Amino acid sequence: MYKSFIRPILFNFDPEKVHHFTFRFLKILFRIPFVKGISQSFYEIKDKRLERNIFGLTFKNPVGLAAGFDKDAKLYRELSAMGFGFIEIGTLTPKGQPGNDKKRLFRLIEDSAIINRMGFNNKGVENAVKRLKKNKNVLVGGNIGKNKLTPNEKAEEDYLICFRSLYDYVDYFVVNVSSPNTPNLRALQDKEPLTKLLNTLQAENHSHEKPKPILLKIAPDLTDEQLLDIIDIVKETKISGVIATNTTISRKGLHSANQTESGGLSGKPLTKRSTEVIKFLSEKSQNAFPIIGVGGIHTAEDALEKLRAGASLIQLYTGFIYEGPSLVKKINKQILEQY
């Protein structure tokens, strides 16, 4: 129904307006008492064999929603009822910011892809905390970044503000230094500043009685040498794992007319590269840390390829938009068929 009826209608309109309309519609719809139960009956598979115990957390299934979809934690409970095992909110910054100028979100329908240059648009970390206080049983990750006007020399302060504000309300953290849409942000992926940033966060983390898992989200555009640096950094800072990968700045092999738009590319063109990065990290580190695989998952087989490459969990974003919520169920069913 989604691909044959709903998606063709939605794809006739501006993607960012559709996103906000969908959020408002789902928020109203899920206020009807029986809707949550119906959604769960359609999309959720409950089976102990799907559970994953990773970095001290129990995920009810390995399929999560990637950051960027529910930036301000407005819809994480409703989205959880669509079968996801976990929801990652953000990227959040200390202060709310509008992001980059519109138009900044583009569908590449011929390529089953999206280009975005949103620029960490969000209402600020404290705004999200108000909603997260209402969470009862959704496993939530907090993806954190820095404000656009914060220079890289002071980036640690922004990440610490977000970390401290979210600490009591998320189950794990993701350090986002790999978005291509905030000026100079990717420079923080260099070995020295990244090690310093993660050590600072770990020091804060271990000041608590029960430290939270911290993961690093990396770009797919890193060279093998840079990926080896990432492995060294994970070992040195003792963070819990890596999310591979964020969006790419590559435009190789695209067919859509609007492929020249600036920003990060996600979707099917990223499938192969993100899997290559997962495999490289897994093999070269000798499975030393968990990896969450994300990038170009549009079918159950795409998901299984990432799991076989070394991912412990996977996340959807663009595939969820193109294929609809039934994709979550299809993946979990296919995983169960492997037993």
TrEMBL record:
<feature type="binding site">
    <location>
        <position position="143"/>
    </location>
    <ligand>
        <name>FMN</name>
    </ligand>
</feature>
<dbReference type="InterPro" id="IPR013785">
    <property type="entry name" value="Aldolase_TIM"/>
</dbReference>
<feature type="binding site">
    <location>
        <position position="267"/>
    </location>
    <ligand>
        <name>FMN</name>
    </ligand>
</feature>
<feature type="domain" description="Dihydroorotate dehydrogenase catalytic">
    <location>
        <begin position="50"/>
        <end position="337"/>
    </location>
</feature>
<keyword id="KW-0472">Membrane</keyword>
<dbReference type="GO" id="GO:0106430">
    <property type="term" value="F:dihydroorotate dehydrogenase (quinone) activity"/>
</dbReference>
<comment type="similarity">
    <text>Belongs to the dihydroorotate dehydrogenase family. Type 2 subfamily.</text>
</comment>
<feature type="binding site">
    <location>
        <position position="91"/>
    </location>
    <ligand>
        <name>FMN</name>
    </ligand>
</feature>
<dbReference type="InterPro" id="IPR001295">
    <property type="entry name" value="Dihydroorotate_DH_CS"/>
</dbReference>
<feature type="binding site">
    <location>
        <begin position="67"/>
        <end position="71"/>
    </location>
    <ligand>
        <name>FMN</name>
    </ligand>
</feature>
<dbReference type="GO" id="GO:0005886">
    <property type="term" value="C:plasma membrane"/>
</dbReference>
<protein>
    <recommendedName>
        <fullName>Dihydroorotate dehydrogenase (quinone)</fullName>
        <ecNumber>1.3.5.2</ecNumber>
    </recommendedName>
</protein>
<feature type="binding site">
    <location>
        <position position="176"/>
    </location>
    <ligand>
        <name>substrate</name>
    </ligand>
</feature>
<dbReference type="GO" id="GO:0044205">
    <property type="term" value="P:'de novo' UMP biosynthetic process"/>
</dbReference>
<dbReference type="InterPro" id="IPR005719">
    <property type="entry name" value="Dihydroorotate_DH_2"/>
</dbReference>
<comment type="pathway">
    <text>Pyrimidine metabolism; UMP biosynthesis via de novo pathway; orotate from (S)-dihydroorotate (quinone route): step 1/1.</text>
</comment>
<keyword id="KW-0665">Pyrimidine biosynthesis</keyword>
<feature type="binding site">
    <location>
        <begin position="246"/>
        <end position="247"/>
    </location>
    <ligand>
        <name>substrate</name>
    </ligand>
</feature>
<keyword id="KW-0288">FMN</keyword>
<feature type="binding site">
    <location>
        <position position="71"/>
    </location>
    <ligand>
        <name>substrate</name>
    </ligand>
</feature>
<feature type="binding site">
    <location>
        <position position="245"/>
    </location>
    <ligand>
        <name>FMN</name>
    </ligand>
</feature>
<comment type="function">
    <text>Catalyzes the conversion of dihydroorotate to orotate with quinone as electron acceptor.</text>
</comment>
<feature type="binding site">
    <location>
        <begin position="116"/>
        <end position="120"/>
    </location>
    <ligand>
        <name>substrate</name>
    </ligand>
</feature>
<comment type="subunit">
    <text>Monomer.</text>
</comment>
<dbReference type="GO" id="GO:0006207">
    <property type="term" value="P:'de novo' pyrimidine nucleobase biosynthetic process"/>
</dbReference>
<keyword id="KW-0560">Oxidoreductase</keyword>
<dbReference type="Pfam" id="PF01180">
    <property type="entry name" value="DHO_dh"/>
</dbReference>
<dbReference type="GO" id="GO:0005737">
    <property type="term" value="C:cytoplasm"/>
</dbReference>
<feature type="binding site">
    <location>
        <position position="176"/>
    </location>
    <ligand>
        <name>FMN</name>
    </ligand>
</feature>
<feature type="binding site">
    <location>
        <position position="296"/>
    </location>
    <ligand>
        <name>FMN</name>
    </ligand>
</feature>
<dbReference type="InterPro" id="IPR005720">
    <property type="entry name" value="Dihydroorotate_DH_cat"/>
</dbReference>
<feature type="binding site">
    <location>
        <begin position="317"/>
        <end position="318"/>
    </location>
    <ligand>
        <name>FMN</name>
    </ligand>
</feature>
<feature type="binding site">
    <location>
        <position position="181"/>
    </location>
    <ligand>
        <name>substrate</name>
    </ligand>
</feature>
<feature type="active site" description="Nucleophile">
    <location>
        <position position="179"/>
    </location>
</feature>
<feature type="binding site">
    <location>
        <position position="217"/>
    </location>
    <ligand>
        <name>FMN</name>
    </ligand>
</feature>
<dbReference type="InterPro" id="IPR050074">
    <property type="entry name" value="DHO_dehydrogenase"/>
</dbReference>
<keyword id="KW-1003">Cell membrane</keyword>
<dbReference type="InterPro" id="IPR012135">
    <property type="entry name" value="Dihydroorotate_DH_1_2"/>
</dbReference>
<keyword id="KW-0285">Flavoprotein</keyword>
